[in-house]
Amino acid sequence: MTFASPIALLGLLAIPLLFRWYGSQQRRRARAAQAFVAPALRPSVAPRRPGWRRHAPMLAFALALAILVVAAARPQRSVAVPVTEGAIMLANDVSSSMTATDVRPSRLQAAKDADERFLADVPSAIEVGLLEFARSPTVLQSPTTDHSLTRAALTQFQSSGGTAIGDAILTAVRVLTSLPPKGGKRPPGAIVLASDGASNVGSDPLAAAREASAQHIPVYTIALGTPDGTYVGKRGSQTVIIPAPPDPQELAQIAALSHGRAFTVATASGLRDAYAHLAAQLGHKQVKREITASFAGGGLALLLLGSVLSLFWFGRLV
Fold first, then answer.
1. Helix, strand or coil, per DSSP, at residue 232
2. C-alpha of 91 from chain center
3. Phi, psi of 213 (to 5 degrees)
4. Distance CA 195, CA 193 (A)
5. Cβ(224)–Cβ(110) under 8 Å?
6. Which residues are registered as beta bridge partners of 286?
7. Among the four 18, 44, 195, 212, which has the fewest Cβ within 10 Å?
């Protein structure tokens, strides 16, 4: 919880002073009673003492005052509200290692299935585009609110060699920053990048992540695969089994530099869960809402309670 006017919280310093005043009043009443009635006669003059009831109204008043001071500070809490505009680029690695079958039915097919889940979950107001990358990136669909077009572009994936993560990020940034402004401002953007390895061709991916950060475009990375993953490839004229363990370290650095978030998944279900989480996260934003009325209402209710108790038990307010 935060406060729009925190200076008002200084009013809480008055609470100890209130208790000090109340204590002095009780001692003054006790001294007056002792002066008026001899100790031996006090049980017959005042056989029943109010006990805890004497202090209950004042406790309610003090608590009410504290709550009203907090209300004056205009308390706020963050709530998630649906995003009404924004653009996301899905960047999928289609390098040869993505044909590995350690993630069923293959890393590439699992990524495509997760993309479809993402498109089904993300709000329709969000523009979603798609690019693939191996040795170089290719934009298959520019960001659009017609998610069926982006879904159809998933069928165009073509696997080949190389992993140009840096070029993929820079291409996605260029696409997102070239979108027409809405209301005089560029729509907020983000990149969701799925890959199984470190970049081995093209631009420096960490420099690309810094460029994305400079444009206020976070990169959410997903490292896909298991340490024992392999794929069938060519070395010269021979067909060989090539190890393809994932490399999540570089992807984690990219996410950190761009103020995104890194995921590491080893199963198709884990990948779908990661994309579902991202769809929910990117489809909502945190906004601050004032809850002053709730505090003010609670404080006034306690004031009323204290007044009623004091009048009912003692025939006076304090």
1. strand
2. 22
3. -65, -40
4. 7
5. yes
6. 80
7. 44
Does 225 score more than 90 pLDDT? yes
d(CA 57, CA 52): 10
Do 126 and 164 touch, CB atoms closer than 8 A? no
As a CATH number, domain 84-282 is 3.40.50.410
Residues 6 or more apart from 98 whose CB is under 8 A from it? Answer: 106, 107, 108, 111, 159, 196, 224, 231
Give tens-digit pLDDT for 78-94. Answer: 877 667 789 999 999 99
pTM of the model: 0.71
Q: Which amino acid is at 67?
A: I
Give Cβ neighbours of residue 92 (< 8 Å, ≥ 6 apart): 108, 111, 112, 115, 130, 131, 132, 133, 157, 193, 194
From the centroid of its chain, how far is CA 149?
A: 29
Q: Are 53 and 278 in contact (CB under 8 A)?
A: no
> For residues 311 and 129, what is the distance between their CA atoms, to the nearest angstrom?
68
pLDDT in tens, 174-204: 999 999 988 788 889 999 999 998 899 999 9
- Burial group, residue 111, by CB count within 10 angstroms (0-12, 13-18, 19+): buried
Domain boundaries, the chain: 2-78+289-314, 84-282
Q: Which residues pair with 304 in a beta bridge?
A: none
Which amino acid makes up residue 162? G
Cα distance between residue 113 and residue 166, in whole Å: 24
Q: Are 268 and 141 in contact (CB under 8 A)?
A: no
What token pair was written down for 136? 């170089």
Q: Which two tokens stand for residue 81?
A: 């509200």
Q: Count CB-CB contacts under 10 A for residue 230.
A: 17
- Cβ contacts of 156 within 8 Å, gap of 6 or more: 132, 140
